[in-house]
Amino acid sequence: MKILVTGGAGFIGSAVVRLAVRRGHEVVNLDALTYAANLENVASVSNSPLYAFEQADLRDRTALDRVLDTHKPDAIMHLAAESHVDRSIDGPGDFIETNITGTYNLLEAARAYWVGQGRPEGFRFHHISTDEVFGSLGETGQFTEETPYDPRSPYSASKAASDHLVRAWHETYGLPVVLTNCSNNYGPFHFPEKLVPVVILNALHGRPIPVYGDGGNVRDWLYVEDHADALLLVLEKGELGRSYNIGGENEAKNIDLVRTICAEMDRLRPENAPHDKLITFVTDRPGHDRRYAIDPDRIRTELGWRPSVTVEEGLRQTVEWYLDNADWWQPLLARKGVGERLGKA
Ligand SMILES: NC(=O)c1ccc[n+]([C@@H]2O[C@H](COP(=O)([O-])OP(=O)(O)OC[C@H]3O[C@@H](n4cnc5c(N)ncnc54)[C@H](O)[C@@H]3O)[C@@H](O)[C@H]2O)c1
């Protein structure tokens, strides 16, 4: 297949690009290269004849038309987005423009391209979204694909809007779409403003490890390479118009996740143990969703997919990767907003 991946210089998009090329697909990586992007994430495949890069912005419809006409992909995997909840609290405008208007532009460009190609049956528009669109759970229950949307942050509201647009383009224009909503990802190449890399790097540098509120917020954690594997499976085998929830089968309170990472740091850097002495509780994020949990039944029973690693294994690999790859993360610490407390409203 020739796949156009949007956001392929970001965290999850780059995992998709690397895996797709390894599996012999042709990949066109379309990315605007915002603060969150890093072409080093795809350095391992960038010399492959199967790989091409196009710097283009979802807000620029003409550029999207040009990329589609030039490369003529068989499928689009749409991951490009503004993705950081704290930044969405401080500046929601970028989230509206990229996640909503940008997705609208891509849908319209994809529709024109698909119609122009004679509506090929095998064409797919795969929209990648988040479990945050479902809102916050109490102590029990899980999100299924039928759970009503109830987004609560500017980020999740913008992603919810984009999901609705994608379904509408399927129902109204027949665009062949599939959707996925997945839980919190972690793993190599994760931009150092997100929880897992923040904990690793602050522990490494002996700096306070910030934990929002009481640390009792619960998330499901999915290793990014497992996510990329699930996404390629849904692209190839998912039923048209259907959405699939993807989870790691690893629910954990933030504080427990942080303590697990500290224990890994104790093992790898025993001279500075115990790292959990650095844990510092800070003012909570406004509107902080309490609990997310994924019911993975559909993807498991219909497509036979399950995550390959436990959170303990995935975190071990992730901590080792960060300790071995300072050249990757060091320059990113200088980017705007990194290391600052954002999103206090
Ligand atoms: N990270 C998670 O835990 C998680 C969980 C579920 C779903 N998702 C979804 O997966 C997707 C990828 O997330 P991520 O964590 O890799 O994000 P990321 O922030 O690491 O990467 C986003 C990429 O999109 C690009 N981009 C942003 N605005 C753009 C624009 N206007 N035009 C073109 N490119 C643009 C950026 O340059 C960057 O390379 C997002 O749609 C996100 O909502 C993420």
What does this structure look like?
The chain has 345 residues and is an alpha/beta fold. The protein has one domain: 3-Layer(aba) Sandwich (Rossmann fold), CATH 3.40.50. Helix content is 40%, strand content 17%. The protein contains 11 helices and 12 strands. The strands form 3 sheets. Strands 3-2-1-4-5-6-10 form a 7-stranded parallel sheet, sandwiched between helices. It has a 3-stranded mixed sheet with strand order 7-9-11. The chain has a two-stranded parallel ribbon with strand order 8-12. α1 packs across α7 and α4 packs parallel to α5. The protein is globular. 46% of the residues are buried. The model has no long low-confidence stretch (mean pLDDT 97). The site of nicotinamide-adenine-dinucleotide has 30 residues, from α1, α4, β5 and β7.
The CATH architecture term is: 3-Layer(aba) Sandwich
Q: What average pLDDT do the residues reach?
A: 97
What is the helix/strand order? EHEEHEHHEHEEHEEHEEHEHHH
With helices defined by DSSP (H or I, 4 residues minimum), what is the helix count? 11
How many beta-strand runs? 12
Task: Give the % helix.
Answer: 40-55%
> What is the H level of CATH, i.e. the homologous superfamily?
NAD(P)-binding Rossmann-like Domain
The shape is globular
Decide which structural class fits the backbone: alpha/beta
How many discrete domains? Answer: 1
Sheet-strand content, in percent, reads: 15-25%
Name of the CATH class? Alpha Beta
Low-confidence parts: none
The description of the largest β-sheet is: 7 strands, parallel
Family: Belongs to the NAD(P)-dependent epimerase/dehydratase family. dTDP-glucose dehydratase subfamily.
Catalytic activity: dTDP-alpha-D-glucose = dTDP-4-dehydro-6-deoxy-alpha-D-glucose + H2O
Protein name: dTDP-glucose 4,6-dehydratase
EC number: 4.2.1.46
